[in-house]
Amino acid sequence: NMETAREDARSYYQLLVLVGAIALVFFAVSTGMILSTVTRQLQADSKRIGMLRAVGADEKTILGCYSGQVFLSLALGMALAVVIWVCLDVGLAYCSRGIAAIVLFSLSCLSLCLLLLRRRVRQITNQSIIENIREL
Asked: Is the Cβ–Cβ distance between 76 and 67 less than 8 Å?
């Protein structure tokens, strides 16, 4: 019985490490995809951002224009993950832990995406306003 319990504990630990590694890969990929999509849109809208800056918009306003996409992407992803988790019916004892993990990963991803988005917007807004007015 002791040997079986040790074997079960080892296999459970290996499963946790595997699931953690998979979650980390998905976290990195989803963060990268969301941020690259918003970055491409920021670069495409550089003239519009210049116009907003020329009429007096600050960095917070510009950030608010693009952070909605990040919220929507993560909200849809989190909702889909919760639905899949519940449909798989892993077990009532683990269901609340799994949903809590999904929410924790989503909030971490949201925080990282918003931090990196703020950095990208700051890079664009650090350009000269005079150049933005000339482009208009």
From this structure: no
State the Cα–Cα distance between residues 57 and 30, nearest whole angstrom: 30
pLDDT band at 90 (very low <50, low <70, confident <90, very high): low
DSSP class of residue 127? S
Residue with tokens 């799994």: 98
Q: Say if CB 136 and CB 54 are below 8 A apart.
A: yes
pLDDT in tens, 33-83: 888 888 888 888 877 888 888 788 888 888 888 888 888 878 887 787 777
Q: Write the CB contacts of 103 (distance below 8 Å, at least 6 apart in sequence).
A: 78
Please name the amino acid found at residue 107: L
Six-digit token pair at 45?
A: 């809208």
> What residue type is 79 in one-letter code?
A
Tokens of 39: 């970055």
